[in-house]
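quick q for whoever's on today - can somebody do inverse folding on this one?? i tried earlier but teh output was garbage lol. tokens:
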């Protein structure tokens, strides 16, 4: 009987430790037909803290030519970006912006929904000619379709 109790305690401790360290990935896809843009976004959380951000946007090209894409792929602790937490939001600042005199950062806020604010992110250096990053993306708590705000045409 003691072995069963000890085994049950070991299983419970192992399970709770695993659950405490499990990553949560929130992600969504989008398609804006009127602007000929598609893409996806994902945020990885470890114990509620943002540890990875990925945004991919594909823009259609003119008839007969290839399209263009924009990519943000950043992980906390890797070179190339500085991560900080400010008033419940995670700020990801590009360490080598295309234009060093302008800000180049993304603000991620996690709540019921995940908000990715890219209003101060530089598209140059991340996007092909004729493409731009969205101004913002919201990953909803339910469903797989992002809400996206594209820059003015």
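ok took a stab at it. sequence:
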């Amino acid at each position: 009987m003691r072995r069963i109790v000890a085994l049950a305690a070991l299983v419970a401790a192992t399970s709770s430790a695993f659950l405490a360290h499990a990553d949560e990935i929130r992600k969504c896809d989008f398609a804006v037909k009127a602007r000929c843009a598609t893409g996806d976004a994902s945020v990885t959380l470890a114990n509620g803290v943002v540890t990875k951000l990925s945004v991919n946007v594909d823009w259609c090209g003119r008839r007969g030519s290839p399209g263009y894409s924009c990519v943000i792929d950043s992980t906390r602790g890797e070179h190339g970006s500085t991560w900080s937490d400010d008033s419940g939001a995670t700020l990801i600042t590009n360490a080598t912006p295309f234009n060093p005199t302008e800000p180049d950062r993304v603000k991620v806020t996690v709540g019921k929904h995940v908000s990715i604010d890219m209003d101060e992110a530089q598209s140059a250096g991340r996007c092909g000619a004729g493409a731009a990053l969205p101004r913002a993306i919201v990953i909803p708590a339910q469903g797989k379709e992002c809400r996206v705000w594209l820059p003015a045409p």
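fwiw Residues 4-19 have pLDDT under 50 and may be disordered. also Residues 2 and 8 are 10 Å apart (CA to CA). so keep that in mind when u check it
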